[in-house]
Amino acid sequence: MRMNHLKLAACLLFVAPLAVEAEEEPTITVSAELRARCLKVLRAGMKSQEFWPSIHAAEGLALAGQGDEVREFLGPKLVTEKDDQRRCGIIRELVRAGDCEKGPLMIEILAKDDTHGHVHAAESSFKVWVKGDGKLLRAATKSDNVKLELMAAAALARHGDKRAFKKLRKRLKDSDPEVNRIASWILARIGDDTDVPQIRKNVAASKDELTRAYHQHALAALRDKEGIAALIKNLSSKDAAVRTYAATFAGDARALGAKSELVRLLDDENIDVRVRSAQSLLVLSKPTASPVCMKKK
Question: How many CA atoms lie within 13 A of 84 on its CB side?
């Protein structure tokens, strides 16, 4: 994964559940006018010449129930795209949009001798619940590339692998902030309240705003009140990467109190901030749901 702020934001995308309603939970009210505005932002984003923001916008549209639109747009791109990192992004969003047969293509990229797409393949497998037989992912957890190790462990842990969870929690305590913040980002989605104390320690130890935001937003996703308050504050950050993450995690954390800030950010100068804000507004307007392709297995 690329590690500068905005490119890292492009790589670390959230997989939110979709399509099949789960238990009832509080939602925000989104008027027909606001929904149309959000969809307009996402459609413009998907057609952007900036690749990763375009993929993020496709994610938002899939989460909003526009899977047919996403599959129609991205399908032809998968045929022509040669870069394996970008192919992972396209495949991931096709799967999220309901094209479940594309999932194994991510494992095929992980199997290649060329390692260029390996981290993205493992990360994308995590995001849309793809595992294959698990052999390649288990091998990847032993990689010298710590990002590949973490993402492969995340994909396995999502399917209940206890060893993978143990590895992620060990990395959550890692002294390297670029390592522990990724572990925090993962456990925000698949961890539980036993992870909260260590994440709080990581917040206190963070020396820069972006690293601190990773951990604050993980706390928010784990329903920690202080984390949610920090997330809402981070929506006003001067750092576009921090705003992007805060906008993304607002949906993940069911941060209903972020609505007015998210609406304001629909006009943000940064495309990713606009796209993620539109996505979270639409996500918060309905109950959490399960991934389409997980339900079709």
Answer: 20
Is residue 31, in this structure, part of any structural domain at all?
Answer: yes
In tens digits, what is the pLDDT along the chain, a chain of 297 residues?
Answer: 434 444 444 344 333 333 334 457 899 999 999 999 999 999 999 999 999 999 999 999 999 999 999 999 999 999 999 999 999 999 999 999 999 999 999 999 999 999 999 999 999 999 999 999 999 999 999 999 999 999 999 999 999 999 999 999 999 999 999 999 999 999 999 999 999 999 999 999 999 999 999 999 999 999 999 999 999 999 999 999 999 999 999 999 999 999 999 999 999 999 999 999 999 999 999 998 888 887 665
Report the alpha-carbon distance of residue 81 to residue 281 in Å, rounded: 31
Nearest to 123 by CA among 96, 77, 89, 166: 89
Residue 7 within a domain: no
Amino acid (1-letter code) at residue 236: S
How far is Cα 33 from Cα 154, in angstroms, rounded to an integer? Answer: 38
For residue 27, the domain's CATH number is 1.25.50
What is the extent of the structural domain holding 211? 17-296
Domain for residue 51, yes or no? yes
65: left (phi over 0), alpha (psi -120 to 50) or beta: left
Tally of domains within the chain: 1
Tell me if 9 is assigned to some domain: no
